[in-house]
From TrEMBL:
Name assigned to this protein: 1-aminocyclopropane-1-carboxylate synthase
Protein family (similarity comment): Belongs to the class-I pyridoxal-phosphate-dependent aminotransferase family.
InterPro entries the record matches: Aminotransferase_I/II_large, Ethylene_sulfur-biosynth, NHTrfase_class1_PyrdxlP-BS, PyrdxlP-dep_Trfase, PyrdxlP-dep_Trfase_major, PyrdxlP-dep_Trfase_small
Coiled-coil annotated residue ranges, if any: none
A matching Pfam family: Aminotran_1_2
Origin species: Musa balbisiana (Banana)
EC number, as in UniProt: 4.4.1.14
Cofactor(s) required, per the database record: pyridoxal 5'-phosphate
Pathway: Alkene biosynthesis; ethylene biosynthesis via S-adenosyl-L-methionine; ethylene from S-adenosyl-L-methionine: step 1/2
GO molecular function annotations of the record: 1-aminocyclopropane-1-carboxylate synthase activity; pyridoxal phosphate binding; transaminase activity
Aminotransferase class I/classII large domain mapped to chain residues: 43-422
GO biological process: ethylene biosynthetic process; fruit ripening
Gene3D superfamilies assigned to the protein according to its UniProt record, in alphabetical order: Aspartate Aminotransferase, domain 1 (3.90.1150.10), Type I PLP-dependent aspartate aminotransferase-like (Major domain) (3.40.640.10)
Keywords: Ethylene biosynthesis, Fruit ripening, Lyase, Pyridoxal phosphate, S-adenosyl-L-methionine
Amino acid sequence: MPQQLLSRKAACNTHGQDSSYFLGWQEYEKNPYDPKTNPTGIIQMGLAENQLSFDLIESWLESHPDATGLRRDGVLVFRELGLFQDYHGLPEFKKALADFMGESRPNTVKFDPHKLVLTAGATSANETLIFCLAEPGEAFLLPTPYYPGFDRDLKWRTGAEIVPVRCSSSNGFRITKAALEKAHRRARKLHLRVKGVLMTNPSNPLGTTMTRVELDTLIDFVVAKDIHLISDEVYSGTNFDSPGFISVMEAIQGRKNVAHRVHLVYSLSKDLGLPGFRVGAIYSNNETVVAAATKMSSFGLVSSQTQYLLSALLSDKEFRRSYIVENRRRIKERHDLLVRGLERTGISCLNSNAGLFCWVDMRHLLKSNTFDGEMELWKTMVYQVGLNISPGSSCHCDEPGWFRVCFANMSAETLELAIQRLDDFVVSCHGHKVICNSGCRMQSCMPKWILTLPSSDRMLER
Ligand SMILES: Cc1ncc(COP(=O)(O)O)c(C=O)c1O
């Protein structure tokens, strides 16, 4: 069909589908690993799914036939749910979701269900917020590296722009006032009006929680510039190690002139491992934003039977509490398995305490310290080593050689095989493993260019 018959939006190429992040998924689909039917296939390590605690939900479902059978006290509620179409959502579900959100943030914040807007996942929540807060051509500042899906979710249909806040490995990719100011100046130079900052906490792809200092820096910045702050907290329940997660709603407590400009995004895709159910939410203290987003949510509602089922699940206090604790324990176990396995291979990761992935430093494996070098290594990983991992460039990282590696969407055996494949690859590159007794890489075996980086940049001292 001729392109002129389509809208500009439908014909344009700004969806981001051609990013190596999504291309990796396509390559995996062509040759997916299966221990029995395709043992040499590609292992999917580019998908931040949580498959570690399905059994806990399944056993709850087995023992609660009313919830799965759409019954209340044994009586079918099919007709009620079949007709329900109020875009405010089921009150009992919003209450259960607000309680769940409070519980995964060590009860430091109480969430009011009236300030919640239900959306079809965090994808829809983020886009809806941008529709509420920005005109086409206005900009949001995003700390790098950031989740590749944001290029699609925040920009494609809204026409808004993203200006990166450049963070670097020299301070573990922490957000600083200087970096925020620089991004703001850059936006002004590009004649873009800045409407806010959007960050992920815990970070995707870093797997780190934000410090109180970073949160205060961000809050001071948005107040000084008179703009908004969106905190995407979809990984809040994955915080498996200290320091503890601090929600933006906790960070603003006791501060003036802030609450109306701070908005939180949440979903059940990561903490509960249910991206297929499409359950997300916006939480905001700004009544106008809540009202506008609720009207917009007509375009991406959560189905009534999903709300019914999950309100029963999440209202079960005992289930909620034990799930959160056990899920965190399992994520930590898996994280440690990957980090220790990579260490044995001579590969280090950024220290992390949350998320379903590690931010892995493979700079010493690049043939050149360039993004071409990173792409070459990524292709080798996908086609020769058989691992789909996400290159840092797809997350807009400024430094070539970092990769996001997911660990919670497969069995422990598959993860061990993936580590073995990496180990074999490293040995084939160097002829031997490049590690010293303490587990770190030996400088004498590194490519020359990496030795010229400042040592803090190399992040070897851990
Ligand atoms: C930071 C972040 N926000 C939003 C999303 C989208 O989540 P959902 O499946 O709830 O739309 C993801 C998914 O990976 C994510 O990592």
